[in-house]
Structure formats: C-alpha cells, structure tokens
Structures
1.
Amino acid sequence: MKADPKGVLTGAIFIDGDHACAEGAIAAGCRFVAGYPITPSTEVVERIAERFPYIGGIFVQMEDEIASSIAIQGAVWAGKKAMTVTSGPGFSLMMEHIGLSAMTETPCVFVDVQRGGPSTGLPTLPGQADMMQARWGSHGDYGIIALCPNSPQECFDLTIKAFNLSEQYRVPVLLMMDECVGHMTERVFIPPAEEIDLYPRRYYEGNIEDYLPFKPDSDLVPPIVKAGDGYHIHVTGLTHDEKGYPVMTPVAQEKLVHRLVDKIRLNADKIVEYKEDEIEGAEVVVITYGITSRVAIPAIEQARKEGIKVGHFRLIVAWPFPEKRIREIAEKVKTFVVPEINYGQIVLEVERHSAGKARVKLVPHGGGSVHNPKDIYNTIKKSLEG
Amino acid sequence: MEENLAEIDESIPPNTVEEFLRMDRIPHIWCPGCGIGTTVNCFANALAQSQLDLKKVAVVSGIGCTGRVAGYINLDSFHTTHGRAIPFATGLKLANPELKVVVYSGDGDLTAIGGNHLIHAARRNVDLTVILINNFIYGMTGGQVAPTTPVSATASTTPYGNFEDPFNIPHLAASCGAVYVARWTAYHVRHVTKSIKEALMKKGFSLIEILAPCPTLYSRRNKLGDGLDQMIYYKENSEIRNDADTKTLGLTFQGKIIVGKFVDKDQPTYLDRMNEYYSSKFGNKFVPYKG
C-alpha cells in the first residue's frame, strides 16, 4: 500500500535527524506516539506534537518511559501504528516492554537517539553504546530488528522502513540513531506519497471460528486482529499456545520462543541491509554504522591515497547482523577495522563471524564526540603491520 | 450411574456468568476462599445488566492473582506487565475511543509498582473503569507486604508485623481527579455489581476498590481463619457511608471498614478536553480526534 498523502510533506526540506524521524513516522502512517522528554531525542516528539493535531494523530506525553513503551502497544492492539522515542536512560526503562512486544508479537517502533552513558552520562553528546542493549536488553530469548541511520535523510527513510519491518515480522523495531545524526541538519527529500511503499498490517482474513491468534504463516509470522472486532482475543506476556492461552511447560516454551527467535534468524537474509564500497580486492575493510560511517570516510580516503586497499562496509541494519556476508569477506581480507563510539560492541560480532580468518581491530571511543579520523587512519595503517 | 451424570439437571438454573468466561480455561488458579472469583461473578453480572456491546469491551490486567482475571474473561483481554495495565489501557482507549476499557488488577500491581500510572490516569481523566481488588498482600509471590497491608499485620517480608502506613486508596484516587470512586468488600456482592455497572456507564476515570479475602497467605499468616471468617469480618465491621469524606477512609488491622460510593461527578475526559481545546485553538483546521 501507499502512504496517506495527508501527512506527507513532499519536497526538499532542511531539517535535522530528529525532525526527519518524526516526518518518517508520519509518512509511515504512525498516528499514535507516546513519549517522555529526554535529550537528545525530544525534538522528535516536539515535531509530532506540533503536526498531529492537523492530521488526526494523537500524541500523549506519558508519566515516564515505562508508560510510554506500553501505551504504544495498547494503541497497536486498537489498530494504530505507534512509536515511542527516547535516549539511554529511558531506553533502559523500556527494556521490559521491548520484551512484551516481542513476546506478544506487537508491531511497534522504538527510537533511541543514543547519547554517552552509562547512567545519566552525557545527555547532550553522542554515543553508540546501546547497540548490545538493543539486541539483548530485555530478559529472555527473542529476535528484534535494529536500524542505524547516518543522515537526516536516512532518519526519514529508515523510520518508514522500521514501521514496514515491524508490520512484516510483528516485532519491535529499534531505530538506533545517535546524537550527531539526530541534531545534524541537512537537506531531506520527502517523496510524493504515492512513491512511499508501506507494508500493511497483516490482518487475519479467515473465519472468526477458525482464528488462532498465534498460529504462524509459513514465514513464521501469525496474522493479527484488533480489539473491538469480535475475536475476543487473549494476549499475554506469559508463555502461550497458538490460542494465546498461558501454558507453563517446557514444550510450549520451546515451540513459542524458538519461533520468536527463528522468525528473525531464518528471515535474516531478507532483512539485512548494508552498503559496500570497494570491498573487492581490499586488504582492510572498515566496518561502520551511524555517524561513525561518515567520520571514517576521510580516514579511508587518506589510506587509499597512500595505496592501501581499503574497503568500507556500512551497516544499515545492525540486527540481525549480516553474519553471512562478514564470513565471506573474512575469507578474503587481512583485517577488519571497527570504529564505534563505545569500548567494543559490534566489534564482538565481527570477531565472532570472522572466526579467526581475519584480524579484527577495534577503534574505541568513550563517547562525547565522534572519532578523530586520524585514529581510524592510524588503526588502518597499523593493522597491516606484523 | 454414568449415564445419569451426563443428563442435565433441569432444577439447576443455567449459570448466566458462563458466557462471559473462557470456560475452556476453567478451573481457575485461585485458592478456595479467595475473593477474586466472587468479584468476577459480579463483573459478569454487571456486564450483562449494562447491555454493552461485548465486542467493544476490553479487559486489561497487570500481574498477580487478580492479574489473571484477563485470562478468564471471554472478551478482548490483555495480560500485560507488572504494574502497567493502566498505561496499556490508556493506549488502547485513546487509539480507539469506541472501546469500553476495564482495568482489572490487584492492590500491589496498581498502587505499588503501578502507582505512578494510577495517579496520572486519574489526573488526565482517561475514560477507564478500574476494578482494584485489595487483598492486603502480594498473593501470587507468597504473601509479601504491600502498600495496602494494615499496620501490625504480618506478611512474609514483615515477619514481626508491618509498621508502614498503608494507602487510603479511595482518597488517593479522588484527590487525583477520579470521577467515580467506591469501595466495597467481596461480601457486598450486590453493591459490587451495581457499582461496576455504574462505573461502566460513567465517562472518565472510575475506580472501585474491592476488599477480598486471601485465606492462603493473609488470613492464615495473621491467624484470621479461612475465607468464610474473613467474609464474616467484612459483614460485621463494614459500614455503608455513601459520600463519606475520603480522608476518613483509612483502613486498620481488622478494624472498621467504611464502604460506599464516595465520588460520582461529571468532568470532561482526556479526549473531550483535547478536542475541545484544539477546536477552540485551531478552529476548522483541527480535525477532531475520533480514533
């Protein structure tokens, strides 16, 4: 289906990443947003609060992030597309409800504009240290999808993609922005509504008597219904059977949780997205995401000028991780260089999937600014020595 | 003999509550003498009397013994996370204002871990009906002290008795802006039914506190006998005082219980206020929100 033209501000506009994210959500058909103010994400909900009265949406500033992250799930079961927006401390508070969304297969979008942590950390300055929390932060086993925009344009595009993926796989999708991308102002092109493809909610279309709320289709995703349509559905965070009823047995656990994990694992080839630049023939491949993908460019160019064959691999979808592609590249290159604004998170995945075939060098950064490209350049250079 | 068992005894009237229950999930998990099932009976009767379209009624529960209610009610029902039934219900209601949304949960769930959401939903006057079962204890986890445990009552985490003051729940709800506030006990089945029906018909944030026996973990540990003994206590110590000043409604250990309807007023709901405010602000540029 196509976007509703009512909400789409077609044309080229000059806005920051937070505002672009809000416009992406509106274009994606999101009409329910619940949030709690937190720097550096607040501009997203400020724009939503300004825009929604004109387009029939509802924004509620809830009492905290815990409330926000479950209010959106209530809204989804009433038939809305819904989103919440936060940063580090609020993201920590939302973890239980990322688990609830995964367990009850409630499609919704969580935006985390990452800042320096842990705890209150650096409210106004960038970080990329929530990447593992995004993947593993809620208790138990489950699958999620996480996207990493590196520009205001991508904040717009990937917010739409986040909604589409959440509808397609009925999972929480996390948009992992960072303070730099959120507050960076650039030209954003918003296409006409008829050029914006939306993945429609997978509503059940069979007989009401035959409906089993958690019986999956062949791609492991069950069709959904909404409250008020007469299905008398039961939705619980407890381990449940296809009927949605609680069943406290290892057999039920295996059946349900295995599917929740496989839903992403087995569809990973369709979900992963990355951008490659001069990977063929490279000795060193720099793996980046978010703002760091742009900071690495001068370092890569400098090294290339000096004759080093450097490839650049940018993660657009961070979770599921493109492990197959990393395994292939690891067979051919000497070294992976991974700059990230943390002390080693995504680099662990690179190490795991290169499985000793290629060396892996982290370029760590504690947060508060971006890398100095020199540090990335030096690591590229050193990585070929010895 | 077996053939006789299969026959329907015409002298037993049909159970009118059954159509409101997920009979394929019965027997339920509640202990003999527990008061929660009694309140569910009242709720089902209130629903029947209310003539509401059952397609449009949803029940949202948190976690705990009362949290299991959502799982037994044959309506759209949501068993959410601990303490968060109200914000889930807020999302459900605001996203589709046609739904009648009932929050059915316990004292620990709604006033301890969920206390923040309770006060803010009352403040916003979100159109929700909250049925709060107060058994003075965390039943599901084994009888720990709650923000409702009376002073001197023993709980598993207050082995020498509780010294913290409990919440006065009707006063809390009323002072935060609830438009309908009542308290009853599981003994007062007719009053409970009537009160739930009134609350279902009410627009805005309604709260009914229902005291209910927990014979397994509260009565036994406090040497108060079984469920029946607790019902006798309710019967002998309750005083109906409608419109009582909510300040006077604090509960003490095995003391007097003031029951009744304390607040019943009309006030615009969250959505009424939003639509009214934006309409006055933006005129016809504003699209009144209908879900």
2.
Amino acid sequence: MLNIMIVDDSLIIRKTLTTELEKLGHHVIATARSGKEAVDLYGKYMPDLVTMDITMPVMNGIEALKRIKNSYSDVNIIMVTSHGEEKLVMDAIVNGAQGYILKPINSEKLIDVLNKIFPELNDNL
Amino acid sequence: MDKLNLKNLVEKTRKLNILYVEDNEETRIQAIKILSNFLDNIDIAIDGIDGLNQYKEKDTNYYDLIISDINMPNMNGMDMAEAIFKINRHQNILMITAYNNPEYLQELINIGIKNYIHKPVRMDSLINEFQKIVDALDQRDEEDLEFNEITKLNHELDALVDSFDTYVIASRTDLKGNITYVSKAYEIISGYKESELIGKPHNIVRHPDMPSSAFKDMWTTIKSKKLWIGEVKNLKKDGGFYWVEAHIVPYYSSDGSHIGYSAIRLNITSKKQAESLNDEITNLLNNAGQGFLSFGANLEINESFSKECLSIFQTTTLYKKDISNLLFLDNIEKKDLFIEGIGRIVDSTSELQKELFLSLLPKEHNINNKIIKIEYKILNDNSFMIVLTDITKTKELESKIKKQNQIQQMIVSVASNKIDFIELKNDFDNFLINPSKSINTFQRELHTFKGIFVQKDMLDTSNAIHNLESKIKMILSLNNESNLNMQDLMQDSNIKDCYDSDLNKINSILGNDFIIDNNVSINKDSFEDFKNKLKKLSINTENHIFTELMNDVERFEDETIYKLLNGYKIVVKNLSKKLDKEIYPLEIIGDTKLKISSKYKPFIKSLIHVFNNCVDHGIEDIEGRLKNKKDEIGTIECSFEKINNNLQIIIGDDGQGINVDKLVDYAIKSNTELINLKDEEKIALIFSDNLSTKDSITLVSGRGVGMNSIKGEIDKIGGSIKIRNKIGYGVKFIFTLPL
C-alpha cells in the first residue's frame, strides 16, 4: 500500500484518481489543487508517490516537480496528462518524473505505471 | 699464420671437444701442454680400447676430433679408428705417426683417415691441422644448415599437401569429365569414398536444382581454356546438398598436352544458407504489408528497409533521407515532438526514461492520404526502428461505426431534452437568418453554438461551424479591416446544409412533429420506435447513460410535475459541464405521482431560464467558491409541494446571489424612476425586459429575455414569484401556482 498525494486543479480528476487508487488498496494521504499547494504539503505528508497534473493555476506541475525534487531528491512523481502535452511530459521526465498517465484515467493505466515504479507492489499480491 | 688469424683459430678450437689417445705417459703430458694452448675440452684415453669405450659413452657427434697415436698396447690406433668409423663414418681423426712410410700411409688412407702428422709434433703442422678441421667443421655447419632448411621446407610442403588434401575440395577430371583425382576434403563433403568417385562422370554430384544452362556456360569457358568461377549447388551421397564456389581450369600433363580439368572449390554452404535466410526474411518483410525501416540518431534512414515503405512514402528511395520530414512534413508540431523525443532518448542514459520518451512519440499520422500507425523500437543508442502500418481501412470502419453511434447518440441527446433542443433550434434558426453584425460577437456566438451542437452530438453542424471559425480566423489574420458578410460566410461554409442534414436525421427517426411543434409531443409510432432503439442501445452497450435515459423517456408519457421538472437534471448537468462549473447532480424533491394540467407546461418550460441563471450567474467557479469557504461543488435544488390548493415550486442555489445594485444600475439606464425602489422591489427588476447583470451575452443566459418570459408565463396562469436573495449565499425562487 502506498501513501499518495494527488495534485490536480480539477475536482473530477481528484475524485477519479482517489476512487481508483483506493480501489487498488492505496491511501490518498493528501490532495492539492495547485503546484504551490503541492510544494507546501509535500514535506508535511511525505507521501510515497505524487500524481501531478501539468496544467494548473498558480504554479504548474513541472515547476512544482522541480521544487519538490530540489528539496526531496528521492520523491516519486508521476504526471497526469492529456493528449497534446507530450513535450511537457518529456520536460517533466527530464526533471525527474518517473512516469505519466494519459487521461482518461482508468485502473489498468494506474496499475501499469505503479508497477513500473514500484515493482515490489506486484510481489505483495 | 699471423696473430689475428691464430687468435680467430684458437677461439674456434677452444670450443672443440677432443679425445686424445696416447699410451706413453710422458708423451701425453708433453702433448697436453701443447694442446692446451688450443683446447679446453680434452678427454684422455690410454690406449685404443680405452679410446673406443670413451667414444661409445658419448653421443656419436660429440667429439669434433680424435687425436690418436698409432702404436699402442691392447688396441692400436688403426684398429680403434676402424671401429669408430663403423659407428660414425664421418668422424674426424688425426693420427700422429712416427713413420714416414708410404705403405703405412696407404693403409691409413684405406681405413679412411685423411689427416695425420708426424712425430715429433711441430706447432705449425698442428696449427695447420686444426685449421683444416675447423674449416671442415665450418663447412659442415653450413651444410647442416642448408640441409635443415631443405628438411623444413619438405615438412612444410608435406603439411601443405596434407592440408590441401584435407581442406581443399579439389578434383581433376579427364577431358570427358570423368573423375581422375579427388582430395580428402572432396570425399568428406560429398560423402563418397575416393574409390566410388574415380572413373565416374563428375555429374555424379550434380544437384537437380542446378539448371543445365549453368553447366553449358562452364563447359564453353573451360573448353576455350579459360578459368571458370561459379557458385554450384552439389548433391551429397546421402541426398543432402552443399554449395561451393568452384574454380575450374584446364589441366596439362608435364609434356604440356591438355589432358583434363582441375577444380578447387570453396564451401559456401553457410553463406548460401544465410543468404537464403536473408532472402526469406526480406521476402517476409516485403510482403508483411507493413513498412520496416531503421534510422540513426541523425534521423537519416539506413540502407535496408522493406518495400512497403516506398509505397507508403510514395518515393523510389529512402536511403539517407530525413525520417522526420518523410513522416511529418505537413505537421510541424508532430515533427518537433518527434525530433525532440528522439534527441532526448539519445541523450538519456536511463532505460526507463528512454522507454517513457519512446511512448510519447506520435503514434499515428496521415501520410499520402493514408492513416499510418507508427510503432517505434530502440535498436541501440544510435539507431531506431519503426514499423509502419496502414490502418486506413480499420479507421474507416471504426469511423463508420462511430458515425452510426453518433447519429444514435444525437437522437438520444436531442430527444432526452427536447426543451433544450427546441431553444437551441429557435436560437440557431434566428442566428442563421439574422447573424450579428459585429464580427467579434458573430465569432463568439458561433463558438457558443459549436459547443452546444457538440453537446447535442450534432456533429455535422458543429464541424461545419468549426470550419467556418477557422476560415474567419484566417481571413482576419490576412486583413484586419475586412468587411465580412456573415450571411455569405455561412453560405460558403455549408452550415445550413449540415444543420438541415442533422435535422433531417432527427426528423427521420423522431418524426417531423418533434422539431416543428413547440409543445412536447411526438408521433406515437415514432416514439415507440425511438423507445425500442433506445432499449436496444441500453441493453447492447450496457451503458448506464442509456439506461437512465430509457427510464427518463418512459416517464415522458406521464404528465406529472415531477416528470416535467426532471428534464432539468440534464440541462443542469450539460450546462455545468459546458461552463466548466462543478455542480452536484440536480435533485427534484416532491411527490412523483402528482399530475398537473397541460396548461402549466409553458410555465414549466420557461423555468429553463431559472436553471440557466443558477448555473451561469449563481454558482461561482471553484476558485470563487474556495475563496468564500464554500463546498467547492455547487448545489442547485428544486422541490415542489402541494400546499392547500396551490403548487409551490422552489428553485435555489448556494451561489453568489443576485447583485441587486448592479441590477438597479442597469435598470435605471432605461428608467430613472427606478432609483427609489425598495430592496424587495429592486429584485423584481430581474423580470424586466432586456435586463442582465452579466456584462457579456452568451447563448446560455444573460440576454435579459429569460426571466422576463417566466414572469409572462406565470402571470398567464395567475401565479406569483418570490425571490429570496442573499449576497454571497445564494438565491431562492419560490413560485406559487393555483391548482
């Protein structure tokens, strides 16, 4: 089980991710509505994984990724993204994102990306 | 002899091994004194027997020289020499003799002794003898060397011949082609023994796969005494085969007459098998119906690619061409993404990252009017492979099915919310006849219509509008002050045709009445037909939306107040989605069985403006709600209740409320007397003509006609309206209708 922080400005996406992740047995320990909130909350909750939207008001996901990574180099972050944001995802990967999930979100995609980053999850099943 | 020569001589004599045989001790001591000037290794024997025994103890070639007296007891020097010569015919023996007797000398010569000196031994004659021996030894060394060379060469030649026999598939035939010689290697590869081959015609190993034309060429060439080289498939004794590269030349006897042909062959079976495998693979790739190619980090295409690539790119060559240009020449965005992605993969050292970048590359593109699926593989750091598949037909089929589904979806969307649709139709009909004069307003309204048509799944219409929007953008970018005629623009873009086509599809299924009649009515047969289709959809797709709609549609038949209000659930849902607001699903609370007269229907329909206002004006966007510490999801409520002989309908939201001051500001622009109104009266201004607090007009609300039409409807049926407004907390509309 992972403690996960969801960062997304869309309520629908936050809800979908929470539902799907909890179905998979994970715990959503915190949610943030902007990159800035994510940076502020990360240190408080120290989640095992962050799902990070790219396009958000106040501070976008890549900036937030850079800042969190700067203070906590071993952070695990996956980007939540839409078609047309491929270049931004590449930027995020170069800056340390370990994976990405393309909307619409479903459990198969989540399992796929989580297994790549946490191969041990598979062993526990 | 000069000193230098003497020195050279002594240098050589010191290396010699000498056996000195002398019976007289005094002579021996004397002689050794002299000899030790020349010699380091002197073995002493006291008579012939002793000398012979010592000689036998050593290797045959050990002594370079034996110096011996002749007259000795037990065995004299002559007998010893004879015995030694039997062991080594070439042994150097120097006899020291006191006699100068020719017969004696003759006997020495007979035995084979060539060298002798007389007693008393003189230094100069000794030097002379040593010189002769050293010279002879030098010469023998040279001869030995030569001999060794020749032996070595002979060995090499033997080995060569051996290996030729073992490794070279060689044969000779006579002039008629009958085998006269085969090498060991020939036997091994063909599986035949030499005895089975000699005398047989060479075509014993001819494989049936070889065409006779190949041999015709060979015979013509070698008969004209030229070298023939060719690849030949041969038949093994066991029925198998081997491939050789044969070199065949005429063969001449030692007197120069042409007596046959000589051939050597290289085994090229593996090469041939590899070639054939390669051919098979190439054949497979060329016929797979897919394009395979590889390219380097510099994006240049490598030399080999499958034929299908040429047809996909409609070109005759690909080698060294830039793959990004071939794939995405007409799409800068995809091309940039591709180039950046490949660059990032090349730069990255992490396998995980490489995979991630790879998965982000464009997966599909339209190339020469074909939809091509593009799959990528990393061959190594500097090389990539792509597989191209023409998926046009699959896509066409998919889009056909999608189109059919879209039509059904459109019918469902339209039928499930007729009020919405009729309003849209009226507005758009009006827009078509009388479009806005201002290009900005026209564009904005066009855009709003597009969104609503997408919502209603009227995709022909929305696509046509989309094309017109792009066209206007292009025209404006070319000429700012252009005098555009909206009617002409719409005419050119076939908007009316597409719109009519969508309407016709709706007509054909729901019946003409559905569109024309503003009252909720539908031809009974059409309705049943539609219901059946919907039922099928809800069963086949197992999509809960269809099931919900089915339930809704079934309730069409009832004339309950609940049913009539229920239609607004979808209105609220669609509109909130369109305006990007988060609102909980609308709940209708009240007696679901309460029926009402059809005379209330126009009023119920006019309530759309209330819901539109709640969604558009009432509920704030998320940021606004969070700032006001509200649930980030908005709530709109609708309840009804029969109180005495009245029906009370309450519609409310938890939004920002109506800004009364703003309302008044707007109102007094047209009527200055309104400035003295009480608060309760002020809010009633919302029902005035052409009044809106929204600065900009959208299709949804804000045109100031909606609330006014509610007032008109409720007046007709003798009802009343109350508004509870609380700035920052929401608004409640309370309608009271006499039953």
